[in-house]
Amino acid sequence: MSLDPEAKLAELGLKLPEASKPVAAYIPTRIVGNLLWVAGQVPIVPGADGKPQVLFKGAVPGQVTIEQAQQCAKQCVLNGLAAVKSEIGSLSCVRQVVRVGVFVCSEAGFTEQPKVANAASELLVQVFGPAGQHARAAVGSIALPLGAAVEVEFLFEIDPECPR
Amino acid sequence: MSLDPEAKLAELGLKLPEASKPVAAYIPTRIVGNLLWVAGQVPIVPGADGKPQVLFKGAVPGQVTIEQAQQCAKQCVLNGLAAVKSEIGSLSCVRQVVRVGVFVCSEAGFTEQPKVANAASELLVQVFGPAGQHARAAVGSIALPLGAAVEVEFLFEIDPECPR
Amino acid sequence: MSLDPEAKLAELGLKLPEASKPVAAYIPTRIVGNLLWVAGQVPIVPGADGKPQVLFKGAVPGQVTIEQAQQCAKQCVLNGLAAVKSEIGSLSCVRQVVRVGVFVCSEAGFTEQPKVANAASELLVQVFGPAGQHARAAVGSIALPLGAAVEVEFLFEIDPECPR
């Protein structure tokens, strides 16, 4: 990539959050060789009181609109990238995005999970260029952790020579 | 494998469709080393008017029967194999199927996701022989993209010497 | 790891079950290089009559309590570890747990999938120590195979020099 992904984020007016602690007994990332798995991310943001809160809660489209769910998907990407940076020091160490799994809290009959997931996919391509393209599975889920409208997990290929 | 997988498909009276474009902002396949991820496939077929359409829509078993969902699962395999062939030129470059993820659009209380997923698993074994066997996760989903009754994603091991 | 994982299991008063046959046309494990995928496990236990039965069936929290679902999650881990041992001979050949996918059969509005999944995650850390930590995706599912309250799939890194 000719453009630094973190410079690209800044150019998009986006800022990586602090890497957040998992809400449970697991870790945010795991590396084997040049593959880096990122745990499922929910759209947690700092609330007005400084405490973390979920961006939008509930099922699409009744409780959460597609547009709101797209915001959630983008936040999941930012949170996932924060985890990556926290693990390997720099997003420049990402060689490519490999797979993205998107779970959209859905009412029965809602079929536009791809529209929601596109917000995540497009942000990854904006940040990483062609290296941000990825295989993807997007499905509906009856309910997600913390009531989140969206959960996204990631698999990256990283530069094995990057510091860890 | 002694038998060419594409010859096997022909022997089974099956034909790979044209590799279809993803319905969204992602790519059908991603390779790292000898691993090839295939994006979640829905059972899209060419309609009577030539336009792509989803084979069966809705939840099993009320709106879609188990048999219809099995047809969907098989079509997902064909669509996934078309994506593989489009990426690496030949199904003979597949060393083994590694993991298959099957999402079955389900009514609450439906518990026969394995029966549906078996249609996908069995087709892979028919085509690739023992190399077609795989680890699998099959689960119910409240709703899937385009209303599809089934979505299947794949992970293959490929011959790293195959042309790309 | 300084402690043998199987000794640790015994110390916890836990016993690996017999590796069970998949309920369908797939295999319990697949290896590529030093990665070992384990198929989605449901909480099957030997029944009073010796026949396998599912520990708890139905959705959390109405039909199955969180505590019961946690028991299911632990049983899925034991069943998954039995599959690993059956494939590579010894749990000492596990280098680390990489990724765990947890599906919790959920009523709409149930948001404590992490609490359920923690039972699986914590058991893995008890058994393998820090090497048992992992990236994780935990989501709700409308329905699971055999009516199981929980399904868990696993990805392990193994010692490539272990016998197979």
Record the SSE blueprint:
3 copies of one chain form a homotrimer.
Chain A: H1 5-11, E1 29-32, E2 35-41, E3 44-46, E4 52-54, H2 66-88, E5 94-105, H3 113-128, E6 135-141, E7 150-158
Parallel strand pairs in A: 5-6
Antiparallel strand pairs in A: 1-2, 2-7, 3-4, 5-7
Fraction of residues of chain A in helices? Answer: 25-40%
- Return residue spans of chain A where pLDDT drops below 50 for at least 5 consecutive residues: none
Q: What's the count of strands of chain A?
A: 7
Described by its quaternary structure, the protein is homotrimer
Q: How many domains is the backbone of chain A divided into?
A: 1
Q: What does the model show?
A:
Three copies of one chain form a homotrimer. Chain A is an alpha+beta fold and 164 residues long. Chain A has a single domain, classed as RutC-like (60s Ribosomal Protein L30, Chain: A, 2-Layer Sandwich), CATH 3.30.1330. Chain A is built from three helices and seven strands; from the N terminus they run αββββαβαββ. A five-stranded mixed beta sheet of chain A has the order 1-2-7-5-6. Chain A has a two-stranded antiparallel ribbon with strand order 3-4. In chain A, helix 2 runs parallel beside helix 3. The longest helix of chain A has 23 residues, at 66-88. The first copy, chain A, is globular. Chains in contact: A-B, A-C, B-C. The interface between A and B is medium-sized, with 34 and 29 residues.
